[in-house]
What does this fold into?
Amino acid sequence: MDQGREKKGQWGFPRTFWTANTIELFERLAYYGMNIILALYLTRRVGYSTEMAVSITGFFISSLYLLPIPAGAISDKIGFRNGLFIAFTLLAVGYGMLGAFPSKVMVIVALVLIAMGGAFVKPVISGTIKKTSPEGLSKIGFSIFYMVVNIGGFTGKIVAKILRQDLGRWISASGYTALQEWVQANVPPFTMTPEIASRAAEQSPPMTPEAFFEMLKWQGLGMQCICFFSVVMSIIALLFVAFSYREPDRTGEPMRSVGETFADMFRVLRDFKFVSFILIFAGFDLMFWQLYLSVPLYITRHISERAPMAYIVAINPGMIILFQMPIAWAVQRMRPLATMALGMAISTGAMVLLGVIPTLWGTCLSICVFAVGEMTFAPRFLDYVSSMAPKGKVGLYLGYAYVRSFIANIIGGPLSGFLVARYVPEVGRRNPSKMWLTFAAIGVVALVALFIYNRFVGEHAGEEKAV
It folds into this structure.
């Protein structure tokens, strides 16, 4: 049965719309559970330096947002359902390798597989949302989609906190002596160092070096367990693809050869309006991805090792779950560029708050404010990009939409590694305000560029001039 004959379901959206959102939910559970601890995992469990760990995290995230370009083009050719089969097979294998083989070489191989799998998910699911949203409801469709993304992000972070900080504490007090002996022999740190003793004294309240040392070992095991949780979520998503997902209606779309499909990837670069639009919003994404590049290290180093880091970062998706739909309705009559400019301005303000209030409560407040900016901006962005796409190229254009995150992370990863190492070192004097104000300055530059874009380029064809 094709999508064109599929019956309408809840709120007028067909079943495949809700299936796509369910698949996205499990994919986000897998991804955000792992991604929130990736920089910590690479430093503590694998053994990379701070600069290398944050840079690798940045390059990994950036690849997730460059590879959707060919993945979107391939999915337009082979079909969205086949693209999802490829995606979740690669994701299950990649997450399994990441947890089972925490060595410097094998984690790179695992991250490559995860990036390849995730690249298919992004354009296919967002393309399905566009194709299955009833006429006139695409903005609401993308708002529902974005809320589901954040339900997955929120829940994934909660699970990550339980597995990283609570599971080890429970096992260490249990009778599983064989597992306890394996952890003692195989999970770093292996020796007490002056740095560990110094950090134990910094905790609030202070810990003994021995207790702090033991906590780090069990957290290392917990981070491996998070990777295996991601494997399970990927397999569940794969089952939904196999038994519930139906290929969206492709009636009326031109058929292209493989050569034409890949040629389209390069023709998009001639669309100056679209490309310049994507480049501007890389500034917004550079700020957003600090939640996963800088904030985890900032919280564990500057605030407290025992602070519920995953819960704090989960404020962002938690806010979006609660307020995405009300804000979507509130801004639905605003013109697209005005809405996106407002979201970017609010998010830049959040970076300023992090700089001027470098405390636990300042971090929580800043993440709340950033979430308001994000939920104002993000759903309108995807809808705007999909409306720019020519017929038959929705997957390709939505793949290119994620280039902004590629640019943000290819620059932001090394920049974040440098700023964290300089202003939030593990041991020594810290000055995090300079780091956060640097990111705020990038947001201001991007906002100015957006107003220049609107002044000289304006809304794309069919849209009224805005801002």
User: Anything to note?
Assistant: Confidence is low (pLDDT under 50) at residues 1-5, 460-467. The first helix runs from residue 15 to 35.
